[in-house]
Known about the structure:
Layout: H1 4-10, E1 23-28, H2 29-48, E2 55-61, E3 65-80, E4 83-89, E5 93-113, E6 117-140, E7 146-156, E8 159-165, H3 169-172, H4 176-206, E9 212-214, E10 219-222, E11 230-231, E12 235-240, E13 243-246, E14 270-275, H5 276-288, E15 293-296, H6 311-315, H7 319-324, E16 329-336, E17 341-345, E18 348-362, E19 368-387, E20 390-407, H8 418-439, E21 441-442, E22 448-459, E23 462-472
Antiparallel strand pairs: 1-12, 1-14, 2-3, 3-5, 4-5, 5-6, 6-7, 6-8, 9-10, 10-13, 11-12, 14-23, 15-16, 16-18, 17-18, 18-19, 19-20, 20-21, 22-23
Amino acid sequence: MLLCCCLVLVALVPTTLSVNPGVEARLTDKGLEYGRQLGIVIVQQKLKSIKIADISGEERIGHLGKVKYTLSGMQILNVGLPQSAVNLVPGTGVRLSISNAFISMHGNWRVKYLRIIKDSGSFDLSVNGLTVATTIGIMSDETGRPVVKNLNCGATVGGVDIKFHGGASWLYNLFRKSIEKGLRNALQTQICHLVDESVADLNSRLKTLSVLAKVDQYAEIEYSMVSPPVVSKSSVDLSLKGEFYNIGKHQEPPFSPAPFSLPLQTSNMLYIGLSAFTANSAAFVYNTAGALSMYITDDMIPPGSPLRLNTKTFGNFIPQIAKEFPGLMIKLLVKTVKTPVITFTPDNVTVQTTTTVTAYAIQPNATLSPLFVLNLDSSVSAQVFVSGMQLAGNVTLNKINLTLATSYVGEFQVKPLSNIFQLVVKAVVIPKLNAKLAKGYPLPTIGKMKLVNPQLKVLKDYMLIGTDVQYTN
């Protein structure tokens, strides 16, 4: 009902067998206060929707005998919630309290006495000193999905003031106290029922949430709880799986997440820590899917470059190529031979890759004749940033190292080819990788949530996003 920000966290679901999380998320007191502001608006709207059933009764009044009365058509005109507070209950969830609230209502009354005499009119009702207190537990159900539960609710009505209009005032004043008592009891029951209803509505929404966020045709990322939520005096912490998988095939990588914990910071509403494990699981997935390979042809090289992918250019460094394959174009196959390794150090993200580059001469009949295979070890630095609800980035080349793996054209020196492959990596491979990284990877969110002024910092073995949030229904 209230904890929109908190539910951003608990909506990341089912429990797994992992010990350490790949992602840690924390809702702070500041985020909880924002949740209170959103929640009070929702509570106010809910209170305005209260439906009070008709109230009927009878009083024995002197010589008039039994006077039967009915209050009907009661409608809420206004609800005021001037004071409210929300506090974390360690180990349990959240405590919401509302005090000095007021409700104004309007309705109709009618009475019947001496069997045949009837009277009627309208009334205005003011409820003052209304207090509500409830504890909402944050937990998971038997499937590991998030669930919130109203653990207790108490509502009291301080004072009820009713003013009747029309009819004989001396008459309805005789049973005013009985009516006020009936309305007080009806309101107190309705308010806690409303709280139960709101929590039930919230759970039905949570159960529709997907535990997997699709990234592209190769990968999806799972944000599932690996342990129950931890509620302390100042925050709600969630440990999430934060692991990439090949779509439809959840194969675990040959490495596990290392433990890490978020620093004690409170200036933002929400903190999300993404470990190097999460990034490396993505590298494992794309490498396993064969997505980290590409063919490179001359039309992908900038037109103004003097270095071309043809046997003439390569023949300047390897004469045997020009002799055996004169006047042909060359195609390169760049392919990773093992999963890239991504390292987080303070203010720096580095990616180490080991690939092979196979060069082919393209024959007139389009068949490919292998020329050589090089081992290419490279290092790139990455800049990572938040774009909307995505984590995006771009990379720049640090260095490459070439060694000869296989030659089909005799022995040759690899070093003179360095400029060609520097060009290939910078002009073709890096731009294609950056175009992919610019599309981003989904962060853990719920509903129509926006990140406000997110700040990202790279620390040892994880990156930390501190952000405020804006949430709309």
